[in-house]
């Protein structure tokens, strides 16, 4: 029984870690680079956002812009609780942060890599580096993998777990087998606002804002970070995941509305400012920031609204007040372009889901061919959801490949 796994990323290595060694069973992982689990290494700022503490599966499914119906079968089979148990049984404890993201208590992604790698070693998994697939051919119940270095490997089962590709032509070795591809586009990216004055505030972050993409139903809440090219942070990445296809079609040229106060409405704000006028009218607006915004952002917004430095709340002109209200709860920005996280690149698109059996991860087109992870047309918002899909699909594929031909 020869099992070939293409890709030594999260899904491929986790699958290998879940295939116990048996005499006569050979498991080989083929990796085109010279390293394993690179995304695991860099994710979560090097801490590895392993999964998310969302244990209600219907609620969990809402975190996936693409593939929720498909995942309905896989996430019940191997859920975030199963992920936690799997690592705990191998001596790795996870902790939950306030926003639900889960990390190893060591705050070091190497802990996760070492755990999976150790299990692979126990399973006597072979890893071969510098192996880029050229073609896969199905012949007489076997799958023949040809590599660009002119070597070949004949397998009984092949798991494709090489992550997503940014260009459709990189999938030709899979379309040649009869599979169809949903056009790949970037899913997690930041918003570029070339030469916008707010970029001078780079490094300023606000813990709770709301962003709406104009002309869509997309509204997300969460932390935002101002960068030298525009806006980033979890709230922006979530918006980009939900809008991946639509924003690609717009060539990443669109407008957003930022509510710097998250849930506050215009009416709430007018009432609060009226109170400030009456009760703290002698306070200088620039010195009295009642909204908890970072000092540099507050000063920037006042400047944009034409509020002079020494203006007091009681003397705030009506026109400046109206501008300030609008800037705080409905601040419009023109986005022109994106910046993709190269290390944490996530694609929207991949192998069309109707061509995969979700209960086995096996191809409905080519018997003996399996898929796991981002190669499929499944992707989640930021927060550990993409890794959870990698663990779930890798585990199910591993179990399925063992069942056959035993």
Roughly how many Å is the radius of gyration?
Answer: 25 Å
Quickly count the domains: 2
Low-confidence stretches: none
CATH class of the largest domain: Alpha Beta
How many H/I helical runs?
Answer: 13
Described by its quaternary structure, the protein is single chain
Q: State the end-to-end CA separation.
A: 8 Å
Report on the structure:
The chain has helices at residues 10-17, 38-46, 57-61, 68-77, 80-89, 109-122, 172-175, 234-242, 244-249, 266-279, 295-304, 318-329, 385-403; strands at 2-6, 26-31, 51-52, 94-96, 101-104, 126-129, 133-139, 142-147, 152-155, 157-160, 181-186, 189-192, 205-213, 219-226, 230-232, 253-259, 331-336, 338-340, 347-351, 356-357, 362-363, 369-371. The strands form six sheets. Strands 17-16-13-14-15-12-18 form a seven-stranded antiparallel beta sheet. Strands 6-2-1-10-22 form a five-stranded parallel beta sheet, covered by helices on one side. The protein has two domains: 2-186 and 344-403, FAD/NAD(P)-binding domain; 189-340, Helicase, Ruva Protein, domain 3 (Orthogonal Bundle), CATH 1.10.8.50. The N and C termini lie close together (8 Å). The chain is built from 13 helices and 22 strands. Strand 13 and strand 14 form a beta hairpin. It has 406 residues and is of the alpha+beta class. The model has no long low-confidence stretch (mean pLDDT 95). The longest helix has 19 residues, at 385-403. 32% of the residues lie in helices and 25% in strands. It is elongated and about 85 Å long. Helix 1 crosses helix 13 (385-403) and helix 4 (68-77) crosses helix 13.
